Each structure stands twice: as C-alpha cells, then as structure tokens.
Amino acid sequence: MSYPKCPHCQYEFDAEDIWHDRRIDFPTENDGDTNDTHCPSCKEPLRVMLSLTPSWAFLDENDDEIAA
Fold it and tell me: Mapping DSSP to helix (H, G, I), strand (E, B) and coil, where does residue 49 land?
C-alpha cells in the first residue's frame, strides 16, 4: 500500500497519521467522503477525499498470490 503525500511539501503520510492519530482527520469509511485537515509538516490546510479503488488478486490452492 502506498500512502499519500502532501501536495505542498511532499510529506508522506503513514498509517499512524491516517488510522490512529485523530488530530489529522483523514476520511476512512465511505468512497467520496471528504474531510478538511492539515499537513503536520508544513501546516497547510488540506481537503482530503477518500477514493476506494477496487483491486483483485488471483490465488493458488494454498492462497498464495499468483503473480501476473
């Protein structure tokens, strides 16, 4: 999984920022949800929209992913 970067200073948000640290309010529930927050590095205001993009993986009989 890749994490988003601030469009102003390129700070890379991590799992702690997105899922656990509620002072940075990322939307995490419904596709299209938006929240206003800020970058912890440069303090610029940010409006963040959640975009849930479906993806699929093919598995073998041992549930290991088959590489394309």
Answer: strand
